[in-house]
Amino acid sequence: MSKKNDSIILENSSLKVHINQTTGAIEGIYNKKTKWQVIRQPRLSMGLQILVPLADQRNHKAQSPDQIVSHVKMLSNEACELSWDKIVGERSGPLDIKAVAKISLKGPGLTFELAVHNNSPYRLDEISYPCFGGMRPPKNAKTFRTRVLNMCGGFQNTNMLSPFPQARGYWGVNYPSFITEFPGPACMMPFELIELDDQGIYFGTYDDENNTTYFLHEFAPGFLDSKRNRIPETDEI
Fold it and tell me: How far apart are CA 160 and CA 144, in angstroms?
């Protein structure tokens, strides 16, 4: 465990993780065994983001860049705790909402435990954390896709190389995107697999309550060729 510049570093024999101590964004995940740098564009990562509807605006958000971590508690070489003492809405300003995230390494796994305490007069419709950004497959990867368990008992696969899916409609989103919702016929269990040629990632949620979980995937800044849904192979355009 260490701090370097504006980063918290958690590390064990399997993973090395960089966390922005100002925003809480996950800016680096390095798999020591496979040499895969999972996040290659850390500026695309986000911290905590919450949807807080107002009476006259349903899509009112507490945007990630406005949520500044109040306290950092280092628990060990493999764990830390981040606290947000106030949440700031884009129109409402500061709200009486507090959040605490515990981030820990357990062998080859990275675990997030988030508690949100809402004392504001508004309901919270969505809570997004962690928000991984800049995730790219290893160089020359032939397979990079998501897999979820569908209602038929098999896996539904979605490719994340070219052609990248545009499932949400170009008129309603800023970036090419697709989303998987649990519970639903396309996702019967609250987990998603990221499959590559010779390795992968398991994303799963463990909640005391039966809340809806969304796995949202976006490609920023966009297509090289929108007619063929072709995305750039390089990290930068």
Answer: 6
**Strands 93-95 and 71-76, how do they pair?**
unpaired
Residues 216, 222, 223, 226, CA torsion sign: positive
Structure tokens at 30: 């390095």
CA–CA gap between residue 97 and residue 123 (Å, rounded) = 11
Q: What distance in Å separates the CA atoms of residue 154 and residue 50, rounded to the nearest whole number?
A: 33
Between strands 191-196 and 144-149, the pairing is antiparallel
The predicted-structure confidence for 153-207, as pLDDT tens digits, reads as follows 899 999 999 999 998 877 777 889 999 999 999 899 999 999 999 999 999 998 8
Question: CA nearest 174: which of 124, 223, 231?
Answer: 223
Quote the strand ranges of 107-219, DSSP E. Answer: 109-118, 126-128, 144-149, 155-159, 177-182, 191-196, 200-204, 213-218
Note the pTM of the prediction, 2 decimals.
0.90
CA–CA dist 66, 73 (Å, integer): 21
State the first-to-last Cα distance of the chain, in angstroms, to the nearest integer.
34
Distance CA 7, CA 15 (A): 15
- Structure tokens belonging to residue 62: 């507490």
Beta-bridged to residue 105, according to DSSP, are 110
Task: Express as a percent the part of the chain with pLDDT over 90.
Answer: 77
